Automatic annotation (TrEMBL):
Cofactor: heme
Taxonomic lineage: Eukaryota, Viridiplantae, Streptophyta, Embryophyta, Tracheophyta
Positions with a binding annotation for heme: C469
Keyword Transferase: no
Key words of the record: Heme, Iron, Membrane, Metal-binding, Monooxygenase, Oxidoreductase, Transmembrane, Transmembrane helix
Family from the record: Belongs to the cytochrome P450 family.
Domain of life of the native organism: Eukaryota
InterPro entries: Cyt_P450, Cyt_P450_CS, Cyt_P450_E_grp-I, Cyt_P450_sf
PROSITE patterns, alphabetized: CYTOCHROME_P450
Protein's name according to its UniProt entry: Uncharacterized protein
Transmembrane intervals: 27-47
A GO molecular function held by the record: heme binding
Keyword Iron among UniProt keywords: yes
PANTHER family: CYTOCHROME P450, FAMILY 706, SUBFAMILY A, POLYPEPTIDE 4 (PTHR47951:SF3), OS08G0547900 PROTEIN (PTHR47951)
Length: 531
């Protein structure tokens, strides 16, 4: 190779030397030739010069051959990842079978993932359970970033979950919440499982908003009970480590039976959806009866399906996948957050008293809470924000997956990695938050920068960037309306001799490890207000 290069460069230079000694008339030509040869030499130099290697993967535990760190994962992944970050840094690598896991635990690196390189990280590493649950990944959570996802996002944010649409179905939400308040009133002086009741409440609220004008009476009650069982089993499977995800070559064997179980659960939902859609289509003009009875999300979705964009149409599969998202994704998240909030307030009685005083001032004791009141309750908003800080509904968000290798925090994050953003750890970072483990709603009062728009990477409970939660507006309304009604209507205390336990249990959705069991005492002046 060296001899060829020597010949290549020596012959033109020899010719140039001989030419310049015989004539000066061709000087411009010779200058051009010299320039060309110099550029050619430079290009060869750059071609032969070794390229700079990419930065290494982030540091992390070594793990075992083949299995990597899988055998050492603590079931409480959010705290486990936080502990690992204290040893290996705010960006670390976990080898999970054939997969590379990247864990992010700092605001600055979260910003690089979710804002600076948002498009690169806008996709998901879809687990087998997620694909089975969402009609092959046809929902807004798992669909790859692109025209189809943008269409689904538009349907959710601009149409289905817009403030105008949410306003139009307020009567449905109100009716379900009043039924729950009535139930608690019937149990005055007795123990009630707050989390269980809030799950049923939110489930009924969501299904009522989805198809409240279609399914009525006893049939809806039976459906709510069935949904509760199926959702519990689905969320458990979605949070269960599955060998098929970490060793794709083994996926066809479904060694743990996760795919088979999820397929069976999804089929149960699909049959329910098919039945409800058939009922709706049989109703004259996609609806009948009063405006309140017929105004529901299914009505909006079927209309959008008929009137949608021909290039990226909303199909029946998309429609059912969105219903699945609402039922599975909207129940546990909201009900668990309300349960955490009430538990934290009971643990700090002065916080509960202050919230009750605020609601009483705005609503009065001879009236009931309406959604129109919630924007006049800044302290209760601070309670919500502080609850989401300490107990974010999705502690690791939904994992992201880069479409190409990318340099983040000085390290290479390889294409196809599963990227966990540990928002739970960021929200408890002592370099950001004063007394980070203390429940203190006051920290959110009078400081507008602490919102959940996803622009501040010290606090982003709903995520950030293109894949930020599409249901934030609905979650805010349901949480505030529910919690305001609970603290306005009742005093809450623990059963005699019991202590409050605030310990968390990790899952795709964060839960209270020990359910909140409490005793309600009525606060309102007129028993008729509980009807």
């Amino acid at each position: 190779m060296l001899q060829k290069l020597t010949t290549l460069f020596s012959e033109p230079y020899s010719w140039w030397f001989q030419t310049t000694t015989t004539t000066t008339s061709s000087l411009p030509f010779l200058l051009l030739t010299t320039t060309f040869l110099l550029l050619l030499s430079l290009s060869w130099f750059l071609y032969l010069k070794p390229t700079t290697p990419d930065p290494p993967l982030p540091p992390g535990p070594l793990g075992l051959p083949i299995l990597g760190s899988l055998p050492f994962l603590d079931p409480e992944l959010h705290t486990h990842f936080s502990t690992l970050s204290q040893t290996h840094g705010p960006i670390l690598t976990l080898r999970l079978g054939t997969k590379i896991g990247i864990v992010i635990s700092s605001p600055s690196i979260s910003r690089q993932i979710l804002k600076d390189h948002d498009v690169t990280f806008a996709n998901r590493d879809v687990p087998v359970a997620g694909r089975e649950a969402a009609y092959g990944g046809s929902d807004i959570v798992w669909t790859p970033y692109g025209p189809e996802w943008r269409m689904l996002r538009k349907v959710c944010v601009r149409e289905m979950l817009s403030n105008a649409t949410l306003d139009s179905v307020y009567g449905l939400r109100r009716r379900e919440l009043r039924r729950t308040i009535q139930y608690f009133y019937s149990r005055v002086g007795s123990r009630v499982n707050v989390g269980e009741q809030m799950f049923l409440t939110v489930m009924n609220v969501i299904t009522n908003m989805l198809w409240g004008g279609t399914v009525k009476g006893e049939e809806r009650g039976k459906m709510g009970a069935e949904f509760r069982q199926v959702v519990a089993e689905m969320t458990e499977l979605l949070g269960k480590p599955n060998l098929s995800d970490f060793f794709p070559g083994l996926a066809r064997f479904d060694l743990q039976g996760v795919q088979k179980q999820m397929k069976g659960l999804a089929k149960r939902f699909d049959l329910i959806f098919e039945n409800i859609i058939d009922q709706r289509l049989k109703m004259d003009g996609h609806g009948s009866g009063t405006a309140e009875e017929s105004a529901d999300f299914l009505q909006f979705l079927l209309k959008l399906k008929d009137d949608g964009d021909a290039k990226t149409p909303l199909t029946i599969t998309h429609l059912k996948a969105l219903l699945m998202d609402m039922v599975v994704g909207g129940t546990d998240t909201t009900s668990n957050t309300v349960e955490f909030a009430l538990a934290e307030m009971m643990n700090k009685s002065q916080v509960l008293r202050k919230a009750q005083q605020e609601v009483e001032t705005v609503v009065g004791k001879d009236n009931i809470v309406e959604e129109s009141h919630i924007h006049k309750l800044p302290y209760l908003y601070a309670v919500m924000k502080e609850t989401l800080r300490l107990h974010p509904a999705l502690p690791l968000l939904v994992p992201h997956c880069p479409t190409e290798s990318c340099i983040v925090g000085g390290y290479t994050v390889p294409k196809g990695a599963r990227v966990f953003v540990n928002v739970w750890a960021v929200h408890r970072d002592p370099s950001v938050w004063t007394n980070p483990l203390e429940f203190d709603p006051e920290r959110f009062l009078g400081d507008s920068k602490w919102d959940y728009s996803g622009n501040d990477f010290n606090y982003f409970p709903f995520g950030s960037g293109r894949r930020i939660c599409a249901g934030t507006a609905m979650a805010e309304r349901m949480f505030m309306f529910s919690l305001a009604s609970l603290v306005h209507s009742f005093d809450w205390k623990l059963p005699e001799g019991e202590k409050l336990d605030l310990e968390e249990k990790f899952g795709i959705v964060l839960k209270k490890k020990v359910p909140l069991v409490a005793i309600p005492t009525p606060r309102l002046s007129d028993p008729a207000l509980y009807e």
